[in-house]
Design goal:
Shape: flat
Distance between the termini: 24 Å
Radius of gyration: 30 Å
Structural class: mainly alpha
Oligomer: single chain
Number of strands: 0
């Protein structure tokens, strides 16, 4: 265990060392290009595309020059949007988040837009820097081609290369831009919100909000306020729910698949079709149907009262007398919804277990029970380990089941988070219902840290990851 820990530490330090070496090599390469490049390349450090135009790469040079002019125009002459500066003026506002508190006749600075525009401006600067470096590299490459007696590539040749040997770049670039615009920048914005006091008492455009550092995170561990008092109980139930939901669906699906695929079971195709049909039904319809069936005066309660099984209706979900009744009811309903998925996946795996394993076991004198225990089950677990991990992480953020069945109830007096709320449903209530965006961002960040850490630790330590190309480890 100690050796493994030391190996992990050495691996981290080695990776950190490689990272700094890579950064250093980039700076060295940048300096070398300026020193070794021709006049066009040197000028390209200040006027993008100049080196390309000098090497008669006119179209490419014009594109780089237009990018530079457009960037400077945005940064210097960009107009105000909703009375909030954009471009270079948004950078100082990113640190202050506004100074004008407003009065009866004029609104306050919009701190949210200032934060958003500042982050977007930083993103534009990053994209421009990448394009700037690409311009210098392109000009330097043309210098090297001329020194070797080659003709610098034309725009038509570069375009043909993008559709041939560099086709992967042409296809991945739009995806990377989309990830930057729709994933990375919104995520950075959400993370920044966690370090402010942007809540229902500081609505954007009406009252300024400001940076508060790690105060929101400190409240989690100080046990004060909504997030301090309710975080650990909600986290505990979230982990318990994810464990029970994952284990019950996983084991139930495997048992169901083994039962259906047993020799002697008739109508296997019919049984499989029935369970596949249940998957085709949208999940929210199934959940709402079960909520109505288990309602206080729903069909199930009415039937049990009618036959004399109970005297009064049982509150199974939101109005349950004990939170554990609601919790175990949710787990039971989730089994009914989730087992068919695991069953279908396991059925496919069982059909593809290598026959030679069974033949070898039979030659060695193994019984059917021994073959099932030492081949079938280990093989299924080996193949489904990644699914098991992703299912566990998915259940941590399973919004639909909780929100549609109980909405987080039974409620806890004085607090927003109910007894069945998960971190994800609590986050929804904090942001959409209460407008406490800073607390919602804190919950989102902590949820991400928990799920990412759990995923990396469990998967990288599993045999499916370490020995993904071989199944022999399981055969003992």
């Amino acid at each position: 265990m100690k050796d493994e820990k030391n190996a992990d530490e050495k691996g981290f330090l080695s990776a950190l060392n490689r990272f700094f070496k890579m950064i250093g090599s980039r700076f060295v390469a940048f300096g070398n290009r300026f020193k070794d490049g021709g006049v066009g390349t040197k000028v390209s450090h200040f006027i993008m595309g100049f080196g390309n135009i000098k090497h008669k790469q006119i179209v490419k040079g014009i594109i780089f020059f237009i990018v530079e002019i457009g960037f400077l125009a945005i940064m210097i002459f960009s107009p105000e949007i909703n009375s909030t500066p954009f471009g270079s003026k948004s950078i100082p506002n990113l640190f202050t988040l506004g100074t004008d508190e407003g009065d009866i006749f004029s609104p306050a600075d919009n701190s949210m837009l200032m934060l958003l525009f500042g982050i977007v401006t930083l993103g534009l600067i990053l994209v421009f820097v990448m394009t700037y470096l690409a311009s210098i590299k392109s000009s330097y490459k043309a210098d090297l081609d001329e020194r070797e007696g080659k003709k610098p590539t034309s725009f038509k040749q570069d375009l043909s290369a993008l559709l041939d040997e560099r086709f992967h770049i042409a296809m991945l670039t739009p995806a990377l831009i989309g990830i930057l615009v729709f994933t990375i920048l919104p995520t950075i914005f959400m993370i920044c919100i966690a370090f402010t006091n942007f809540d229902s008492l500081h609505p954007a455009g009406q009252v300024l909000f400001e940076w508060v550092g790690f105060q929101n995170f400190a409240d989690v561990f100080a046990g004060t306020g909504e997030i301090g008092v309710r975080f650990l109980p909600v986290l505990g139930w979230t982990i318990l729910w994810a464990f029970l939901a994952t284990l019950s669906n996983y084991v139930g699906g495997i048992l169901l698949a083994l039962l259906i695929n047993r020799k002697g079971v008739k109508g296997k195709k019919i049984w499989r079709t029935i369970f596949i049909i249940t998957i085709a039904l949208p999940q929210f319809i199934s959940l709402l149907a079960m909520r109505n069936l288990l309602a206080d005066y729903g069909p199930i309660n009415s039937f049990m009262v009618h036959i004399g099984m109970i005297d009064e209706p049982i509150n199974f979900l939101a109005n349950a007398a004990s939170p554990w009744v609601a919790r175990f009811t949710i787990v039971a309903i989730n089994i009914w919804i989730g087992v068919p998925f695991t069953m279908l996946m396991t059925t496919g795996i069982l059909m593809n277990v290598p026959k030679e394993l069974y033949e070898a076991a039979q030659i060695d004198g193994a019984t059917k029970r021994q073959a099932f225990r030492h081949i079938t089950i280990p093989y299924v677990v080996f193949v489904t380990t990644p699914y098991l991990i992703t299912s566990f992480i998915g259940n941590i953020t399973n919004f639909n089941v909780i929100y549609l069945l109980t909405g987080g109830a039974p409620n806890v007096p004085g607090y927003i988070a109910g007894e069945t709320d998960l971190l994800i449903t609590w986050l929804y209530k904090l942001t959409i219902d209460q407008n406490d965006y800073n607390l919602g961002s804190v919950v989102g960040i902590l949820t991400f840290i928990i799920t990412a850490t759990a995923t990396l630790l469990t998967y990288t330590r599993s045999k499916s990851f370490k020995e993904e190309d071989a199944f022999q480890w399981w055969i003992q």
